[in-house]
Design brief:
alpha/beta
Length: about 350
């Protein structure tokens, strides 16, 4: 008889979260590992899936995709071992892969290996935020190229006069924004980021050279970013899906780059026009590991394999710091409250739930 475990399910669109104890423990298949879920971060996509059914294969379903745990079992053809710590984004909406349960499946190729010095809570903030940042910066505006082992093999980063080019990050205080600032800086760019006045010190602390108050009108934000950068940028990365007008105006009217120009955004749902003077890239991490939907985001999985290794390298050498956390205790009983806390806002912190102990 299959082993059973606890988990938090929803039974339909808009249904409340409910704790159950009769879920079947999944069995890892080819290239997969079974992970004990120690901590999980809460993301806007969790609420989006619950309220719309986005990505969900069938109900009832367990949600949660930002993982942090310890491997308990491995499937065939895996190089990882039981006892290793692991984090990263899991498949969304597939039974057996979600983190709001005691054990979940993770595809080894998407695994991020946190350093032993990093807490499980901090590791839970890495997957969705850092991987989305990589999609926007590397696949979208193409700041650098990676090899299959996650090593940087080519990057731009300097203008013709030998100075550093800028990257514009719209929304620097959120999880994706903070990781984007750090990664762009690590790659040799200067960064200007928009954020609230309250978050300015936080965004500067993760590496932003300049910040612009996003409560200003769009024209004033445009003028300040143009003044700060001198138009010396070719990429705008919108991490909050609220600034298409500003981002694309910056590329069309302010950028002096003679290279490519690109607007990348996490908004993959709103109608957007193609422009002659710059490309458009929509980040779609939600399609991770969905082979039946590969055509919706060509090359996503192969890119994420190298991004997972790249992020592992950055964590190991200290170039990438985790988000600050607001930790919710109480195990699986606390999941619903943690989701609500994320919806209400946590002031630049990532809401993390401590689900169970290592032992």
């Amino acid at each position: 008889m299959a082993e059973r475990m606890k988990g938090v399910i929803i039974e339909g669109i808009g249904a409340p979260y409910r704790l159950v104890d009769d879920l079947e423990v999944p069995e890892p298949g080819q290239g997969q590992v079974l992970v004990k879920s120690i901590a999980t971060a809460i993301n806007p996509v969790d609420t989006g899936m619950a309220s719309t059914g986005l990505f969900i294969k069938s109900f009832p379903i367990v949600l949660g995709c930002d993982s942090s745990g310890i491997i308990t079992k491995v499937g065939p053809n895996t190089s990882l071992k039981p006892g290793q710590r692991i984090c990263g984004c899991t498949r969304l909406g597939f039974p057996g892969y979600s983190t709001f349960q005691q054990y979940f499946l993770l595809d080894e190729r998407f695994a991020i290996l946190p350093p032993s010095s990093m807490s499980y809570n901090d590791a839970a903030t890495i997957g969705v935020g850092a991987e989305t940042a990589c999609i926007g910066l590397l696949q979208g505006i193409k700041l650098a190229a990676l090899d299959e082992n996650g090593n940087v093999v080519g990057k731009e980063g300097d203008d013709e006069d030998g100075g550093k080019e800028w990257v514009v990050v719209l929304g620097g205080a959120g999880s994706v924004g903070q990781y984007s600032v750090q990664i762009a800086k690590m790659l040799g760019y200067k960064v200007v980021a928009t954020c609230s006045k309250r978050s300015a010190d936080l965004v500067k602390s993760v590496g932003a050279d300049e910040v612009v108050d996003y409560s200003l009108g769009e024209e004033e934000q445009y003028s300040k970013i143009k003044e700060v950068t001198g138009g010396n940028f070719f990429g705008v990365w919108d991490t909050v899906a609220k600034s298409e007008g500003l981002g694309r105006k910056l590329l069309t009217d302010a950028s002096i780059s003679k290279k490519r120009k690109c607007y990348a955004t996490v908004d993959d749902w709103s109608p957007m026009e193609e422009k002659a003077d710059h490309s458009l890239h929509r980040a779609k991490l939600g399609y991770i590991g969905r082979p039946d939907e590969e055509s919706t985001q060509p090359d996503l999985d192969s890119s994420l394999v190298s991004y997972a290794k790249f992020i592992t390298h950055l964590l190991a050498n200290g170039s990438l710091k985790p988000n600050a956390t607001e930790v919710v205790t109480g195990g699986f009983d606390a999941v619903a409250g943690a989701v609500e806390k994320q919806v209400q806002g946590a002031g630049g912190k990532k809401v993390v739930v401590e689900l169970q102990t290592v032992e």
